[in-house]
Automatic annotation (TrEMBL):
The family this protein is said to belong to: Belongs to the LacAB/RpiB family.
Species annotation: Clostridium beijerinckii (Clostridium MP)
Domain of life of the native organism: Bacteria
Keywords (A to Z) from UniProt: Isomerase
Name of the molecule in the record: Ribose 5-phosphate isomerase B
Enzyme Commission number: 5.3.1.6
Presence of keyword Isomerase: yes
Keyword Cytoplasm in record: no
One GO process term, biological-process aspect: carbohydrate metabolic process
GO molecular function: ribose-5-phosphate isomerase activity
Active site: C64 (proton acceptor), H97 (proton donor)
């Protein structure tokens, strides 16, 4: 199950991604927003990230104007490794190396086709483990130290 959310800056992109998820029979829960009316992104980011953090959802996708605000908020939630992605190489690498569990996208930054390619790659790429596990453990230690 994927949790997906957006503010007004990412609303159109969220709807586009939902079309992709529907077409590929990927289950998701849409936490909003449901129009292009202005809405603050922190609550949406927290909702999606929390669902991933507590294990209700396997991964999350967040869209705002730049993807930056969403990624800042999501990365404050325990266990969240949110990646702001704008290219296909990073989409693959951040799954393989960082085991990123939330994907952030900028609806005012990237084109539709690129965004869908990024989503496709990110959802289908597995974490490769090995020495990267040690690095993720170090992230956990830092998270514990500053909680
Ligand atoms: C909203 O205008 C915009 O600030 C927001 O979508 C996002 O880009 C924040 O990082």
């Amino acid at each position: 199950m994927i949790a997906i959310g957006a503010d007004h800056g990412g609303y159109k992109l969220k709807e586009l991604i939902k079309g992709y998820l529907d077409k590929n029979s990927v289950e998701y829960i849409d936490v909003g927003t449901f129009s292009e009316d202005s809405i603050d992104y922190p609550q949406i980011a927290m909702d999606v990230a929390n669902r991933v953090s507590i294990g209700d959802c396997e991964k999350g996708i967040l869209c705002c104007g730049t993807g930056v605000g969403m990624s800042i908020v999501a990365n404050k939630i325990k266990g969240i490794r949110a990646a702001l992605v704008g290219d296909c190489f990073t989409a693959k690498a951040t799954r393989e190396h960082n085991d990123s569990n939330v994907l952030c996208l900028g609806g005012r930054v990237i084109g539709e086709e690129l965004a869908l390619m990024i989503v496709d790659i990110w959802l289908s790429t597995e974490f490769i483990g090995k020495h990267h596990v040690n690095r993720l453990n170090q992230i956990k230690e830092i998270e514990e130290k500053f909680k």
